[in-house]
Amino acid sequence: MVEFEVKDKMAFPDSYEFDSIINDITNHPKFSLLKEELHHGISRYEHSLRVAHMTYRLSNKFHLDYERATRAALLHDFYLNSETEQYSSSKTLVQHPLIALKNAKEHFDLDMKQENMIESHMFPLSKKVPKHIESWVISFADKFVAIHEMARYKASLMMGIYIIFLFNMITIQK
Ligand SMILES: [Fe+2]
Ligand SMILES: [Fe+2]
């Protein structure tokens, strides 16, 4: 069974099948490095699992190609911060799906449909258009999960940083 820290009930992997679909990816050494990468106030590993789990549930419900969609969803942000260092944050928004696709193709077997699912997940910010219903599902799941995470984790993280900053200012003044 996959083990990961879940801070709320949104991303519980509730089935053996979900685990069996993603197991080889979550156990991969490079993918495991995402546990150390900060993303929306949590790890990129946890964010990716949330998007994969939501994609799994939605695509299952609507009788889509849920196995391939779930795997592509898990790989949609498969990049390290060191791989986007040369880009500004706005350019990273557009470039990271292509880096994730390159990494995913390097370490896992993907078909063209899955390639589109990964490269188009930032549409309409990026110019790669979702060509399949599963691509739209991943793009939606990513945005839904990102909004949830930013509201829940990043806001509290920023508040913590702000309080520490204020505390430092007050003690420096004394
Ligand atoms: Fe992304
Ligand atoms: Fe994402």
Please describe what this structure looks like.
The protein is mainly α. Helix content is 63%, strand content 2%. It contains 7 helices and 2 strands; from the N terminus they run ααββααααα. Strand 1 and strand 2 form a beta hairpin. The longest helix is centred in the last third of the chain and has 41 residues, at 133-173. It starts with 15 loop residues before the first helix and ends with a helix. Mean pLDDT is 87; it is low at 6-11. The structure holds fe (ii) ion (2 copies). One fe (ii) ion binds at residues 47, 51, 76-77, 142, 146.
Name the features.
174 residues; Hypothetical protein af1432; mainly alpha
Please sum up the structure shown:
The protein is mainly α.
Biggest β-sheet, characterized?
2 strands, antiparallel
Cα-based radius of gyration, to the nearest Å: 17 Å
Low-confidence stretches: 6-11
The number of helical runs is 7
Helix and strand arrangement:
Elements: H1 16-26, H2 29-32, E1 38-39, E2 42-43, H3 44-61, H4 66-74, H5 89-107, H6 112-119, H7 133-173
Antiparallel strand pairs: 1-2
The chain binds fe (ii) ion (2 copies).
One fe (ii) ion binds near residues 76, 96 and 122.
